Amino acid sequence: MCRCLAKMAASCKTCVRTALLDAFAFTRGALSSRVAVRTYASDSRDGEGMAHFGFQTVPEGEKAEKVYKVFESVAQKYDIMNDAMSLGVHRLWKDALLRIMNPLPGCRLLDVAGGTGDISFRFLEYVRTQQERLRRRAMRMHQTPSWQEIAASYTSEQATVLGGSRAVVCDINKEMLKVGRQRAKDLGCGTELSWVVGDAEELPFEDDQFDIYSIAFGIRNVTRIDKALQEAHRVLKPGGRFLCLEFSHVSNPVLSRIYDAYSFQLIPVMGEVIAGDWNSYQYLVESIRRFPDQETFSHMMEDAGFFSVRFTNLTAGVVAVHSGFKL
Amino acid sequence: MSCVACAVCVACAVCVACAVCVACAVCDVDGRYISEHVRIADLFRTVVADMAAVLRGLQAVRVLRGFCRGELVGVSVHKYRSAHRGVHSCGLLYSENSTSVSSSVHQHPQAQAPEQDPSSMTSEQVGPQPNTSYANQNGEQSEDYETEDQLQARILNAALEFVLQHGWSAEAIAAGAETLGLSSASSEMFPNGAGDLVLHFVVKCNNQLVQILAEQHKRVQLGEAEPKKTAEFLREAVETRLRMLVPYIDTWPQAMSILLLPHNIPESLKHLSTLVDDIWYYAGDRSTDMNWYTRRATLTGLYNTTELVMLQDTSVDFQDTWAFLDNRIRDIVNMANTAKQVQSTGEAVVQGLVGAAVTLKNLTGINQKR
Predict the structure, then answer these.
(1) CB contacts, 8 Å: A134 with chain B
(2) DSSP characters over B226-283
(3) What is the band of B199 on the pLDDT scale with cuts at 50, 70, 90?
(4) What is the pTM of this model?
(5) Do B183 and A238 touch (CB under 8 A)?
(6) Is ipTM beyond 0.90?
(7) pLDDT in tens, A295-325
(8) Residues of A with CB under 8 A from a CB of B
(9) What is d(CA A226, CA A297) in angstroms, rounded to the nearest whole number?
C-alpha cells in the first residue's frame, strides 16, 4: 500500500515535471518537428548517426534499443491501451486496411511489426470469407461437376479453407509476439499463421517471397525507414503490394488542434493510469509527430522502387494507408 | 405514348428506350416479337406495343421529333482521360504521347488509326533502373522499359482469357496477372476492378474496328476497292464491331451492366460516341450542320439495339441479329427519304399558303398603297 502510494507520488512528481516541460516543449517541439520534417524529408535522421526518439535525439544505435524497451513494457496491455486511446476506432482502421488490401485466396501476407497479430487475424478471416464466396459462385455456375473434378478438388490447394493463403507475423519484439501467439491459441488458428522474430531493416526472408507486405503502426518506430522500405521491396514478389497503415498528418487546422490536445494531454495520462507507463505513451505521441506526412512518405516509397503509390486518409488524416506495388 | 418514349430517351443516350423511339428495338417492323424468351423484352413490352401500332402511321414525324430531343443527349463531350494515373516519374521514363490502350486519343489520322498494340512491347522486365543512356535524354521510350500504363494494358489483355471462367471481375484480373508472372495482389492496381477490364476491352475492340476501317479506306483511295454505299458501309461496320463480342457473348450482359454503373457511365458514353464518330467519318460524313448530330444519334441507337438483340439471339451465326440490322438500316434510309419529302412538301405547302394570303389581301384591298 505504502509502496503504491510512494510510487504514485513519485510518478506524480515526474508527471508534473514532465507535464510542465512538455507543455513548454510541446509548442516548440510541434513547430520544430514540422520544420524538421520538411527540411530532412527522406529519413528520420538528424545529422550523422543520430535518430529521433520522439522529440529527443539519440544516437542511431540506441534508438532500436529504446524502442524495444518501450514495447517490451507495453506488450501486456497493448491491446487494451489501443482500445482506450483510440476509443476503439483502431479496429475500424485495421478493417479499412483489409478492405483496401482486398486479398484473394492464395495470397501470402507478411505482417511486419505485427506484434499481437491484429492484421493477420483479420487477413485470415477475410480470405476465409472470400474463399467461401468464390466456392459458392463456382458451385452456382457449375451445377454438375464431374467425379474427376470432385476428386481433384479434394487434393488441390485451392480446396483448402483458405485457398493456400498464409500469414507470417514478424516483429522485433519477443514480448509482443508472445502475446500474439497466446491470442492465436485462444482463437484456434492453425498452421496458416507463423510467428517470426525479425528486424524490419533486415528481414530474415529470401527474396520474392510474399504477395502482400503490410506494416501497421510500426514503421514510425523503425530507425531507418528507407532501409525498411528497401527490405519490403526485396521480399515482395513481382507484382506484390506494400501497404502501410500509420498515423499521419492532419491538415484541417481545427481538427489538428483538437487532436494535438488529445494526444499530448490525455494519452500519456491514460498510459500512466491503465498501463503504468507514462514515458512509453509520451514516446508514442511524439513519434507520431516526427513521422513524415502523407506526401513525403509517398516520395520515400517511390524512392525505394514502388510504383502506383497512393494513399488514403482515414479519419481526416489522423491515419493514412499508403499502398505501392513492386512492378 | 410516343412522348413518353422520347422522354425516356432524353434521360440517357445509351438507354435502350431511346433507341426504341428511333427504331423499334425489341419488336420487328412486322410487329412480331423477336425476343419473347428474353427478360429484357418484358421491360419495354408496354412501350413497344403502343409504338408498334403508331409506328407505321406516324413514322417520319415522330422520328423527327425524337431526333430533336435525342440530339441534345447524343452529343457527348470528347474528353481526354489522363493516361498517367498520378504516376511520379521516379526512375521511369515515359513518353508524353503514351500509346497505351487505356488512353482514348481521339484522332482522325490521314494515314492510320491510333496504334494500339500492347503485345508489341518487347520486354518482360519492368525495371525502374535509372537509365542514363544517350537515347533517352529526350524522355523517349526505350525498348527495354515499359510504362505503368503499358503494363496495366498487358495485364488486362491477359485477364480477358479468364473472363469466361471468372466473369468480368477482379478475380479475372488476378488470374491474368498471374499468367504474366505477377502476384495476384497486383490486381488491386485497378481500383475500378471489373470496370477497368470491361472498358479496356471496349477500347480494344473500338481500336481494332478503326484499324479495319482505315485499311479499307486506304484501299479505296488507292483504287484497289470500290467505295461502298453509306447504308452498306454502316451495316458492315456495325456487324464487324459486334462480331468482336462473339467470344464473350455469354458474359456480355454482365459487362453491359458494369458499363451502366454510374461511375462508369461517363467513360462508356465517351467510348460509344467516339466509336460512332469514327464509323461516320470513314463512311464519308463531313457534315457541319444538324446532320452531324442526327446521324450520330441514329447510329448510336442502331448499334445499341442491335447489341441487345444479339445478346439473346440463338440462331446460327447470329443470323437473326444481322437480319434485324438490315431491317433497321432500311428503316433509317426510308425515314431519311421521307423526311426529305416531308420537308419539300412542307415548303411547297407554305409557299402555297403565302400565295393564297397575298391574293386574299389583294382581293380585299389591304395591300393597296395610297
Answers:
(1) 171
(2) PPPPHHHHHHHHHHHHHHTTGGGTTTHHHHHHHHTSTTTHHHHHHHHHHHHHHHHHHH
(3) very high
(4) 0.69
(5) yes
(6) no
(7) 999 999 999 999 999 999 998 889 999 999 9
(8) 100-104, 106-107, 134, 211-212, 236-241, 298-299, 302-303, 305, 307-310, 323, 325, 327
(9) 10
